[in-house]
Amino acid sequence: MTHHAELTQGLAAIGLELTPEQITLLEGYLGLLAKWNQTYNLTAIREEERMVSYHLLDSLTLVPHLAGGTRLLDVGSGGGMPGIPAAIARPDLQVVVLDANHKKTTFLRQAVIELKLPNVEVITERVEAYQPAQKFDRITSRAFSELAEFVKLSKHLLADGGEFVAMKGVYPYEEIAQLPEDFAVSEVLPLSVPGLDAERHLVRVVAK
């Protein structure tokens, strides 16, 4: 199966309707990720064909759960996941992809330029030191840290009424139990990633 066929079938399975232009952008991002990964070690997945399910479709399962948000922060974005695919799928969303690793943010800046993504800002910073002019109504991470650490380090960036939407593998019982006392889980949703035989969950966390 071609990357294009796998991506379009996967989008249909997730329930995301994207334009041909958006699909072209996702494929362009995949190509850049595979190319830069050869020298910058952006992801442990080295085969481009596996990146469709492991990175694109996995990241895009977040998008249906961002309703109501206008500003999204992707903490520890690495190679840009889930922030870049989410920004492509939701051009109305202002997305900040943040990582402390200069090599990774160099790639992210180049990707934003080449793909012409006006709704994406790249920040090279440790999350606890980041002080933006405006806070975020949605904060996500895919492989940044355990849930409690993620919330502790980035809670100063959450707008009133906002929520954390953390992407996790197996149901994170222990991580949820260790959340700071002033935060609570509002929902844990199982996610199904087309082409990926692994457990995935989305954890919504809100301030009490």
Automatic annotation (TrEMBL):
Protein name per its UniProtKB record: Ribosomal RNA small subunit methyltransferase G
GO terms assigned for molecular function: methyltransferase activity
GO BP: methylation
Gene3D superfamilies: Vaccinia Virus protein VP39
SUPFAM superfamilies, per the entry: S-adenosyl-L-methionine-dependent methyltransferases (SSF53335)
InterPro entries linked to this entry: rRNA_ssu_MeTfrase_G, SAM-dependent_MTases_sf
Top-level EC class as recorded in UniProt: transferase
Species for this entry: Vogesella margarita
Residues bound to S-adenosyl-L-methionine: 76, 81, 127-128, 142
Keyword Signal: no
EC nos: 2.1.1.170
Family stated for the protein in its record: Belongs to the methyltransferase superfamily. RNA methyltransferase RsmG family.
Reactions mediated catalytically: guanosine(527) in 16S rRNA + S-adenosyl-L-methionine = N(7)-methylguanosine(527) in 16S rRNA + S-adenosyl-L-homocysteine
CDD domains, per the entry: AdoMet_MTases (cd02440)
HAMAP family in alphabetical order: 16SrRNA_methyltr_G (MF_00074)
A Pfam cross-reference name: GidB
Localization per Swiss-Prot or TrEMBL: Cytoplasm
Function, in words: Specifically methylates the N7 position of guanine in position 527 of 16S rRNA.
